[in-house]
């Protein structure tokens, strides 16, 4: 690497500032540019670092002088600044690609439309319990680049979105997990599911025969892709429906895991988290643990005492024998499908937000069976009304969480469940799904 290579960083958020910290340590000349407004804590971090930065627009001439550009995942490929960089032939990469060049730690990369946060945290939980020197980053925890700069881990567990994978060139996880593929973020992929699938499979593109690829053998889109394309990594499928020669499957209500050198069995009933989707998440996480030769007692204990993820089927309170559940992290229909499927009583469903190209048809049987009333929470609810208008007797509309929860309180009867599972992004009324979930919990506590 020639001395004082120039890196421009687009976006002064967690990944941008983390990349700046690592790039400065590695001797790069660093410039950070945010088209919007950066948070105070990130501006302070950049000032403390002595890095030049700007907000409220891009200094194009300065950015186009860079040898390499790190683009934050929230910035679309079609952004004018990104297009100009591509036209000029300047490499535009993700934080994941950049940081992976400066660590010798082995990487476990986890992606998928749903379940990736739970699986990432579950794997991290097992590895920590086993006493490994492990960091967790990507979409969760501190920036990966920042941890590479400041920590000395042997392993990283990375939750990877399709946007982060779009910016990789040589990134290679030793173990890659693809939890599932369902239509999501199609607005960023020209509304073509094949573009989104290709993006997810980038996680395995640089893997070799010495690496492992763990995937859902019940997932039709995943299987269709694997039927057309070859991958080099050793494949370890998991399934609720079919026995596997290698990988994980259910037999007599036991989870069985077979890896190249070992076997593991544990009863499904001892899992900390309920629901079919969590059984699959547990299969993926414990397959990773088996590959790492972690003691079976440690895996079992970690399967039993894992606390789960905030905003994912999180039980908030029971009021007048009505259970309120926060599933704000359900930002697509597949996540909401699993939520509705796990409901065991009549449900008042709070749904809506920014539609990312949803097809609500798959939810119709569950809505008919489980939902007594729908409360739409979003700026534009026309598509939801069109999809479910004939399914339920009561369908209401609101644009505030407090009002939505108060409506639900009036509609729910003893023994019912109130479920916030939006099936949509949150950006019309909230900063992110976390804020949406927190507002739901606060509104419930204030009833």
From TrEMBL:
GO CC annotation terms, alphabetical: cytoplasm
GO molecular function: ATP binding; UDP-N-acetylmuramoylalanine-D-glutamate ligase activity
Binding site for ATP: 112-118
Main location: cytoplasm
Matches recorded under Pfam families: Mur_ligase_C, Mur_ligase_M, MurD-like_N
Mur ligase C-terminal domain span: 311-424
A GO BP entry: cell wall organization
Name recorded for this polypeptide: UDP-N-acetylmuramoylalanine--D-glutamate ligase
Source organism: Antarcticibacterium arcticum
């Amino acid at each position: 690497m020639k001395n004082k290579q120039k890196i421009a960083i687009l976006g002064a958020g967690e990944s941008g500032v983390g990349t700046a910290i690592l790039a400065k340590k590695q001797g790069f000349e660093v410039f950070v540019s945010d088209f919007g407004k950066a948070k105070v804590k990130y501006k302070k971090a950049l000032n403390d670092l002595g890095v030049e930065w700007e907000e409220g627009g891009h200094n194009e001439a300065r950015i186009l002088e860079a040898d390499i550009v790190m683009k934050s995942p929230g910035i679309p490929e079609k952004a004018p600044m990104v297009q100009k960089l591509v036209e000029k032939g300047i490499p535009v990469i993700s934080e994941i690609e950049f940081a992976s060049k400066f660590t010798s730690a082995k990487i476990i990369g986890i992606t998928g439309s749903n379940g990736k946060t739970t699986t990432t945290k579950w794997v991290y939980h097992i590895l920590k319990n086993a006493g490994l020197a492990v960091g967790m980053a990507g979409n969760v925890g501190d920036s990966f680049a920042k941890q590479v700069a400041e920590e000395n881990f042997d392993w990283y567990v990375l939750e990877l979105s399709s946007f982060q994978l779009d910016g990789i060139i040589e990134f290679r996880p030793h173990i890659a997990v693809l939890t599932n593929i369902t239509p999501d973020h199609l607005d960023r992929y020209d509304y073509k599911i094949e573009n989104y699938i290709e993006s997810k499979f980038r996680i395995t593109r640089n893997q070799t025969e010495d690496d492992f690829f763990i995937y859902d053998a019940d997932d039709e889109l995943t299987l269709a892709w694997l039927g057309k394309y070859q991958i080099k990594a050793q494949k370890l499928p998991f399934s609720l429906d079919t026995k596997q020669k290698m990988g994980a499957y259910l037999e007599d209500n036991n989870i069985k895991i077979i890896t190249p050198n070992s076997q593991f069995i544990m009863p499904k009933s001892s899992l900390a988290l309920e629901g079919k989707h969590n059984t699959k998440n547990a299969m993926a996480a414990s397959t990773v643990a088996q590959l790492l030769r972690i003691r079976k007692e440690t895996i079992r204990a970690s399967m039993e005492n894992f606390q789960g993820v905030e905003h994912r089927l999180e039980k908030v309170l029971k009021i007048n024998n009505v259970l309120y559940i926060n599933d704000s992290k359900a930002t697509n229909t597949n996540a909401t499908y699993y939520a509705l499927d796990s409901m065991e009583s009549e449900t008042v469903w709070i749904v809506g937000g920014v539609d990312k190209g949803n097809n609500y048809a798959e939810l119709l049987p569950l809505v008919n069976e489980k939902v007594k009333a729908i409360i739409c929470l979003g700026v534009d609810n026309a598509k939801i009304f069109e999809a479910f208008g004939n399914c339920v007797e009561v369908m209401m509309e609101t644009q505030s969480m407090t009002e939505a929860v108060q409506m639900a309180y009036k509609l729910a009867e003893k023994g019912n469940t109130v479920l916030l599972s939006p099936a949509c992004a949150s950006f019309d009324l909230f900063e992110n799904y976390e804020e949406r979930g927190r507002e739901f919990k606060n509104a419930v506590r204030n009833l």
